[in-house]
Specification:
By secondary structure, the protein is mainly alpha-helical. Helices cover about 65% and strands about 0% of the residues. The protein has four helices and no strands. The longest helix is centred in the middle third of the chain and has 16 residues. The radius of gyration is 14 Å and the shape is flat.
Length: about 80
């Protein structure tokens, strides 16, 4: 983590979604996991254009989340 500190290059979305997986699978807290995922989806959706949003609507939820992560990666580039 020291390599990323102060550079504005870390994207915490993967870590946050990992926490949602922990809530769901290890702690059996489905409601809380879903709330975390919805929050991440809202943040990512804020960087997606209407045209892309239309295309994403046709995807399954896991594929949509993956596409959102790609969009977020492009919106929050690491370098």
């Amino acid at each position: 983590m020291r390599k990323l500190a102060g550079r504005g290059s870390a994207n915490p979305i993967g870590a946050i979604l990992s926490a949602a997986m922990l809530l769901r699978h290890a702690l059996h807290l489905e409601t809380e996991a879903a709330a975390v995922e919805r929050a991440v989806d809202r943040v990512i959706a804020s960087c997606i254009t209407p045209r892309v949003r239309e295309r994403l609507a046709a995807l399954s939820p896991p594929a949509r989340r993956a596409a959102h992560l790609v969009c977020a990666r492009n919106y929050y580039p690491t370098r």
